[in-house]
Design the sequence.
């Protein structure tokens, strides 16, 4: 399976994020105050915003959370479920974003 086919069928095609949710995330990188005041929605679930800036958005919903990181050409969205915690998930997602940025993606 090609990378694009994988993305189309398993990521974009999974329907996890609505168009409005995608737009709100992209706008949130340039206007983090919007995210900080209203939280972030993923798959219809609202996450309380812990932090937001022009690169990363972190959110929490009960014991679960989300790490969203922007690269040059992509936005990584990682939802972690308890017992995984932010200190375990964040470095992995941020590290992947750093790698993608380093290779021009």
Sequence:
């Amino acid at each position: 399976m090609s990378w694009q086919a994988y993305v189309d069928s398993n990521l974009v095609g999974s329907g996890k994020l609505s168009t409005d949710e995608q737009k709100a995330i992209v706008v949130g990188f340039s206007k983090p105050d919007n995210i900080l005041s209203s939280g972030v929605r993923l798959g219809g679930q609202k996450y309380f915003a812990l932090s937001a800036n022009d690169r990363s958005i972190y959110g929490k919903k009960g014991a679960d959370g989300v790490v969203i990181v922007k690269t040059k050409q992509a936005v990584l969205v990682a939802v972690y479920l308890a017992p995984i915690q932010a200190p375990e998930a964040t470095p992995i997602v941020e590290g992947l974003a750093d790698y993608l940025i380093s290779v021009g993606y």
Summary: The chain has four helices and five strands.
